[in-house]
């Protein structure tokens, strides 16, 4: 615990020590691990990623040991425990928020961590009853509670968290507003999004690119792809001046007047910006904007090929082909033209995709959408599908043997080859 650089080894030492606590010699000579060792393990757990539900149990166990030893867990440990109470699942829940609030209440009351956990959450047996000096929460604490509440999408939990924040006397910061913006976006409330942007403007908070990416995602999620594109145009103009500065001025005025959104001249798009925009345009089938932005993304020195998020952009394009791709015989009504979401263009993208560094293994979802896209645009050409499948299996199986083991991918292979693999 005190010296290991490996979190698993440190945790194993803690578990082993805990198992010996009933031994008479251990109880007499070293009833508790040294506080500095427990504090170190706490920090180890706090910064380990990815966060799973086991983080909460592990952190709680260590902090209870600190308490039993007569120590006082620091505020950072409490904050991480509150955070872990609401993490580990893809989406939050009101039960997770209740757990987070229970830990918060223990902290401000000077009680042992976990003293008032909701029934059934966890049971560590007998709790020590001694009271320490209450810990005063900071802005981070209230932002964590707000984050847990907004992830739950439970309106009463959000009202409670906002109430605690208001009572604290702290002014909301950028993180606070991003929590609320995400909440309003997921609740499909553009009025709430605009209200949040108004508060940001009133507080004169300078938004970094992360904030604008969140705004773009909020507009796209709420089917205002036009507004997402408007924000992107201004960000893009900060890299290369548009030939249509009159149009840029009109867009800037529109966003300021109707959306309460100001885009400063020094904020530039990053990988997440391009990926969000490609997803937005591909989702609605806007081929021209999808590929204009995609080409710019790949040619940008700061964003392209070496960044792990590149796969997300390719997946968005492949999803676009899967969603809007046309059978070779299909003609666009009224124009008499062949759809641009066609097999020829898909093959161009796929060849480019295979030129990416071999260590950039796609996700299972990416593989699925590639195959779905080829299936749709080829008119279910099994010979072609087998070729594409073989190319991907040959390229990625060594690096990630279980990549193709997902049930829906196995079913796809069965269909392509007309057999059941063993």
Automatic annotation (TrEMBL):
Keywords: Repeat
One Pfam assignment: PPR
Gene3D superfamilies: Tetratricopeptide repeat domain
Keyword Phosphoprotein: no
Matches recorded under InterPro entries: PPR/CCM1_RNA-binding, PPR_rpt, TPR-like_helical_dom_sf
Protein name: Pentatricopeptide repeat-containing protein
Organism (species): Coprinopsis marcescibilis
Lineage of origin: Eukaryota, Fungi, Dikarya, Basidiomycota, Agaricomycotina
């Amino acid at each position: 615990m005190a010296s290991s650089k490996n979190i698993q080894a440190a945790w194993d030492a803690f578990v082993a020590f805990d198992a010996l606590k009933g031994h008479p010699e251990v109880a007499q000579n070293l009833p508790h691990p040294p506080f500095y060792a427990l504090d170190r393990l706490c920090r180890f757990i706090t910064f380990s990623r990815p966060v799973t539900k086991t983080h909460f149990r592990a952190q709680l166990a260590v902090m209870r040991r600190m308490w039993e030893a007569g120590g006082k867990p620091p505020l950072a440990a409490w904050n991480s425990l509150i955070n872990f109470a609401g993490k580990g699942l893809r989406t939050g829940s009101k039960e997770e928020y209740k757990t987070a609030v229970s830990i918060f209440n223990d902290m401000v009351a000077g009680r042992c961590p976990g003293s008032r956990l909701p029934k059934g959450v966890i049971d560590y047996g007998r709790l020590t009853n001694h009271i320490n000096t209450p810990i005063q929460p900071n802005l981070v604490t209230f932002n964590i509670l707000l984050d847990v509440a907004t992830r739950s999408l439970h309106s009463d939990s959000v009202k409670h968290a906002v109430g605690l924040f208001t009572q604290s006397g702290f002014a909301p910061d950028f993180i606070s507003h991003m929590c609320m913006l995400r909440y309003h976006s997921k609740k499909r409330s553009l009025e709430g999004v605009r209200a949040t942007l108004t508060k940001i403007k009133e507080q004169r908070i300078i938004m970094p690119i992360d904030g604008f990416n969140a705004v773009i995602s909020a507009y796209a999620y709420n089917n205002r792809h036009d507004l997402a594109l408007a924000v992107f145009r201004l960000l893009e103009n900060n890299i290369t001046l548009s030939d249509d500065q009159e149009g840029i001025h009109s867009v800037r005025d529109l966003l300021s007047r109707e959306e309460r959104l100001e885009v400063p001249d020094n904020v530039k798009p990053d990988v997440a910006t391009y990926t969000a925009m490609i997803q937005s345009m591909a989702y609605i089938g806007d081929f021209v904007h999808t590929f204009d932005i995609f080409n710019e993304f790949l040619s940008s020195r700061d964003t392209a090929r070496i960044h792990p998020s590149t796969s997300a952009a390719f997946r968005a394009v492949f999803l676009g082909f899967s969603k809007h791709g046309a059978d070779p015989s299909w003609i666009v009504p009224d124009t008499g033209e062949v759809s641009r979401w066609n097999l020829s263009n898909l093959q161009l993208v796929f060849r480019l995709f295979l030129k990416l560094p071999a260590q950039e293994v796609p996700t299972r979802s990416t593989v699925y959408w590639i195959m779905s896209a080829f299936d749709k645009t080829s008119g279910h050409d099994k010979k072609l599908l087998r070729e594409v499948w073989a190319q991907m299996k040959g390229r990625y199986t060594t690096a990630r043997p279980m990549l193709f083991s997902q049930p829906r991918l196995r079913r796809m292979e069965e269909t392509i080859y007309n057999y059941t693999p063993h």
